[in-house]
Specification:
119 residues; cell membrane; DUF202; 3 helices; transmembrane; membrane; 79% helix; mainly alpha; transmembrane helix
Length: 119
Amino acid sequence: MKEKNETHESKYIQQHLANERTYLAWIRTAIAIIGIGFLATTLHYNTPLADIYDQTLAIFISVFSLILGLLTITLATFIYLRNRRNINAQTFHSSFKLIIFMTTFIGFILFVFAIYYLI
Protein backbone atom coordinates (compact mmCIF):
# COMPACT_ATOMS: atom_id res chain seq x y z
CA MET A 1 0.00 0.00 0.00
CA LYS A 2 1.38 3.37 -1.02
CA GLU A 3 1.66 6.05 1.68
CA LYS A 4 0.71 9.62 0.91
CA ASN A 5 3.29 12.33 1.43
CA GLU A 6 2.39 14.95 4.01
CA THR A 7 2.55 18.49 2.70
CA HIS A 8 3.45 21.50 4.79
CA GLU A 9 -0.15 22.75 4.64
CA SER A 10 -1.60 19.40 5.72
CA LYS A 11 -0.21 20.00 9.22
CA TYR A 12 -2.68 22.85 9.66
CA ILE A 13 -5.77 21.53 7.88
CA GLN A 14 -8.23 22.81 10.51
CA GLN A 15 -6.81 26.31 10.38
CA HIS A 16 -6.84 26.40 6.59
CA LEU A 17 -10.43 25.19 6.44
CA ALA A 18 -11.46 27.82 9.00
CA ASN A 19 -9.63 30.46 6.94
CA GLU A 20 -11.58 29.39 3.83
CA ARG A 21 -14.90 29.50 5.71
CA THR A 22 -14.07 33.00 6.93
CA TYR A 23 -13.22 34.08 3.40
CA LEU A 24 -16.54 32.75 2.09
CA ALA A 25 -18.37 34.55 4.91
CA TRP A 26 -16.73 37.82 3.85
CA ILE A 27 -17.79 37.16 0.24
CA ARG A 28 -21.40 36.63 1.40
CA THR A 29 -21.15 39.85 3.40
CA ALA A 30 -19.90 41.72 0.33
CA ILE A 31 -22.80 40.40 -1.73
CA ALA A 32 -25.22 41.54 1.00
CA ILE A 33 -23.64 45.01 1.06
CA ILE A 34 -24.01 45.32 -2.70
CA GLY A 35 -27.58 44.09 -2.33
CA ILE A 36 -28.34 46.95 0.06
CA GLY A 37 -27.37 49.38 -2.69
CA PHE A 38 -29.62 47.68 -5.22
CA LEU A 39 -32.42 47.62 -2.65
CA ALA A 40 -32.09 51.36 -2.07
CA THR A 41 -32.29 52.05 -5.78
CA THR A 42 -35.15 49.65 -6.39
CA LEU A 43 -37.23 50.93 -3.49
CA HIS A 44 -36.56 54.52 -4.48
CA TYR A 45 -37.77 54.16 -8.04
CA ASN A 46 -40.87 52.25 -6.90
CA THR A 47 -42.05 55.08 -4.65
CA PRO A 48 -43.75 58.33 -5.68
CA LEU A 49 -40.85 60.44 -4.37
CA ALA A 50 -39.32 62.41 -7.20
CA ASP A 51 -37.31 65.03 -5.36
CA ILE A 52 -33.78 65.60 -6.67
CA TYR A 53 -32.36 65.14 -3.16
CA ASP A 54 -34.07 61.77 -2.83
CA GLN A 55 -32.67 60.65 -6.16
CA THR A 56 -29.18 61.86 -5.24
CA LEU A 57 -29.28 60.08 -1.89
CA ALA A 58 -30.53 56.84 -3.46
CA ILE A 59 -27.75 56.94 -6.06
CA PHE A 60 -25.19 57.76 -3.34
CA ILE A 61 -26.29 54.76 -1.25
CA SER A 62 -26.15 52.51 -4.31
CA VAL A 63 -22.72 53.63 -5.49
CA PHE A 64 -21.28 53.64 -1.96
CA SER A 65 -22.62 50.12 -1.32
CA LEU A 66 -21.18 48.86 -4.60
CA ILE A 67 -17.75 50.35 -3.87
CA LEU A 68 -17.79 49.03 -0.30
CA GLY A 69 -18.82 45.57 -1.51
CA LEU A 70 -16.01 45.47 -4.06
CA LEU A 71 -13.56 46.76 -1.44
CA THR A 72 -14.74 44.02 0.91
CA ILE A 73 -14.06 41.35 -1.70
CA THR A 74 -10.59 42.79 -2.36
CA LEU A 75 -9.70 43.03 1.34
CA ALA A 76 -11.13 39.57 2.08
CA THR A 77 -8.96 38.05 -0.65
CA PHE A 78 -5.88 39.88 0.60
CA ILE A 79 -6.51 38.81 4.20
CA TYR A 80 -7.25 35.22 3.16
CA LEU A 81 -3.91 35.00 1.37
CA ARG A 82 -2.09 36.70 4.24
CA ASN A 83 -3.66 34.37 6.79
CA ARG A 84 -2.79 31.34 4.63
CA ARG A 85 0.83 32.40 4.60
CA ASN A 86 0.84 33.19 8.32
CA ILE A 87 -0.80 29.88 9.26
CA ASN A 88 1.92 27.99 7.43
CA ALA A 89 4.61 30.14 9.05
CA GLN A 90 2.92 29.82 12.47
CA THR A 91 2.83 33.60 12.85
CA PHE A 92 -0.93 34.15 12.68
CA HIS A 93 -2.44 37.29 14.26
CA SER A 94 -6.12 38.16 14.16
CA SER A 95 -7.17 41.13 12.06
CA PHE A 96 -9.36 43.30 14.28
CA LYS A 97 -8.72 46.41 12.17
CA LEU A 98 -10.78 45.00 9.30
CA ILE A 99 -13.65 44.26 11.67
CA ILE A 100 -13.65 47.84 12.97
CA PHE A 101 -13.36 49.23 9.43
CA MET A 102 -16.24 47.17 8.06
CA THR A 103 -18.47 47.79 11.09
CA THR A 104 -17.96 51.53 10.73
CA PHE A 105 -18.80 51.62 7.04
CA ILE A 106 -21.75 49.23 7.24
CA GLY A 107 -23.08 51.30 10.13
CA PHE A 108 -22.69 54.41 7.98
CA ILE A 109 -24.62 52.83 5.09
CA LEU A 110 -27.41 51.76 7.41
CA PHE A 111 -27.52 55.23 8.99
CA VAL A 112 -27.83 56.93 5.59
CA PHE A 113 -30.37 54.31 4.51
CA ALA A 114 -32.44 55.02 7.66
CA ILE A 115 -32.28 58.78 7.09
CA TYR A 116 -33.38 58.28 3.51
CA TYR A 117 -36.48 56.35 4.48
CA LEU A 118 -37.39 58.52 7.47
CA ILE A 119 -37.33 61.74 5.47
